[in-house]
Structures are given as C-alpha cells and as structure tokens.
Amino acid sequence: MKIGFIGLGKMGAQMVARLQKAKHEVVVTDLDQAAVAAAAERGAIAAADRDALVAALPAPAVVWLMIPAQFVDSEIDALLTILPHGSIIIDGGNSDFRLTRKRAERCAMAGVELIDVGTSGGILGLKNGFSMMVGGDKVAFATVEPIIQALAQSEGYQYFGTHGAGHYIKMVHNAIEYGMMESYAEGFRLLKEGADYPGLDLGLIANVWQHGSIIASNLNSLSAQIFAANPELSGVEGFVAESGEARWALETARAQQMKLPAVQIALDVRRASEQGQINFATKVLAAMRHAFGGHKLNK
Predict the structure, then answer these.
(1) Which residues, in sequence order, are CB contacts of 81 under 8 Å at separation 6+?
(2) 141 band by pLDDT with thresholds 50, 70 and 90
(3) Is 237 one of the annotated active-site residues of the chain?
(4) Are 294 and 243 contacting, i.e. CB atoms less than 8 angstroms apart?
(5) Which of 21, 50, 237, 238 could form a disulfide with 278 if both were Cys (CB 3.0 to 4.6 A apart)?
(6) Would you call 177 a catalytic residue per the annotation?
(7) Which residues, in sequence order, are CB contacts of 127 under 8 Å at separation 6+?
(8) Of 65, 228, 103, 100, which is closest to residue 170 (Cα–Cα)?
(9) CA-CA distance, 89 to 84, in Å (whole number)?
(10) What are the DSSP calls for 79-120, one per residue?
(11) What is the rounded distance in angstroms from the CA atom of residue 134 to the CA atom of residue 43?
(12) What is the spatial distance between Cα 272 and Cα 185, in angstroms, rounded to a whole number?
C-alpha cells in the first residue's frame, strides 16, 4: 500500500522504517525537515507539507498521524479540507478517547473515516514490532489492516470495535504502566537506600528477577540494563513528566464512581516531581521512560 505519514518523532520514524521493510510505500512529512530528510535517505518519499503529501497519494488516501495529542484536532481539521471523499485518517498517538469519538463524527461529516490505533512498544518497536489496539469502522479497518499487520508483532494487534475503543484500551494500558513503573521504582529505592544491606547491586538484582521471577517483565529487563550502565543514575535529575493518559483514566473512573488508588498515587508522584520533589525512585522512573520511549531524561 501507499500511505502518508505525518509525524517522524522517535516512534514515528521507526514505524515508517518498519512499513518500508514490509514493502509499503510511505510519503512522509514533519515540521522537522531533518527528520524528513533522514526518512527520505532510507527510501521514504519526502513531502514538503501536508498538501504535497496528500497530492502524492492515490485517492482515496490513507494518512497516519503520529503526533502529540494537543495537535491532533488542528491537523485533522486541515486534512479534512484537502482529503478526497472516502479517505482514511489513522490516529496512532495517545489521544483522549472521548475526543476521538467527537473527531470521528467530524470526519464522517466530511466523508472521511477515522481509525484510532493505540500503539505500544516505544523505541523498541522497530526491532520487536508494536502492540496495536484498533477502534473505528470495521470496513475501514479491513482496508488498513495490512499496514497495521506490518507494524505489529505476530498476534500483536486486534480490532476492538467502534470509534475510540483503541484509544480507550491504550489509556488503560498506560494507566497500568504508571502503576507498574511506580512499584518498580519504589522497590529499587528501598533496595538502594535500605539501612540493612547497603551497596546492593541493583543491576544484578533486576537480572535475577528477570529469570524465573513472577515480576519479570520488559520494564524489569530495561531496569537491569539501566543499572548495569549507570548504577547511581548519575546525571538523571528525577523529573518525570505527566503525559495525560493516567489523568484521563482517573477522570473516566471517577465518572463511573470507581477508585484507582495505585494509578492515583503514581500520577501524584509524577506531578510532585515536576515541582521538585525528587528522589532515587523518580530517577528510576525518568530512566525507564527514556529507555523505552525516548522521552527526555531531564527537564
């Protein structure tokens, strides 16, 4: 297939490379022209802007958005003025599922389908494949399934129903991620600062846990690598950004009169770090986020 791709950040660039590896043609654009040039060097078709991107695609077009949540509305509005009737927009970023529902209605009024794809895998996705949770019109999903299949691990994608379902599932995924990361970070802090056994090698501990332990995981594996390379987390400030998904999950839970205490605490810790309340645990969180997602290591 020939697809347009807007957004060549750390994940977006890797997704384009994975699509190319699967022999799909990819037309790319980004505000960062250096990122566009780098993708073009790897065989992508460079477009100067969204108009040039759409013009380079067959009608109806398929355009994948991999951009920050705050820019999705304006990008969709701009695309709706130039996309042919019957085109498909795929939002693969971390968007609020409630907004996705509204955006899908707006797209439908313009004769365009919106597919939402919750995407997990971080900067490791190029090698390993991504985990993809899909919502939207089922016929439109069938059209773009070859693209999603090329990006995902084997058995790593699924269609879950109407508009917003993919982003809803990804929101819950990220809320779980917040809680898991916080638990690991607190545990490693206790190991690091506990009075009884000072000087424990956290890298070796994480490595042991990764072999047969119930808490073995990708996050623990990354922790083993992080501590092996930088046992004291030197140069890591401990600032941890709050990126939205856990907050949306808590808002959704409150609307259903549900409590998510682990997620709430994890969010509170991140917010406190933004105000300077940092410790070894928040340094672990920051190092983890950098390792799997390429997020900024320091403020």
Answers:
(1) none
(2) very high
(3) no
(4) no
(5) 238
(6) yes
(7) none
(8) 100
(9) 11
(10) HHTTSPTT-EEEE-S---HHHHHHHHHHHHHTT-EEEEEEEE
(11) 27
(12) 15
58-89 residue pLDDT tens: 999 999 999 999 999 999 999 999 999 999 99
Of all residues in the chain, the percent with pLDDT exceeding 90 is 90
Q: Looking at the predicted structure, is the pLDDT value of residue 123 above 80? A: no
- What tokens appear for 111 in the block? 């004769």
In sequence order, what are the beta bridge partners of 89? 63, 114
Could you tell me the two tokens for 24?
């799909």
Candidates 10, 102, 113, 170; catalytic one: 170
Residue keyed to tokens 């916080």: 182
Does the predicted TM-score (pTM) go above 0.85? Answer: yes
Sheet with 88-91, strands from edge to edge, namely 45-46, 25-29, 2-6, 62-65, 88-91, 113-120, 130-135, 152-159
40 close to 46: Cβ distance less than 8 angstroms: yes
- Of 102, 145, 177, 274, the catalytic one is 177
Least confidently predicted of 15-24, 59-68, 284-293: 284-293
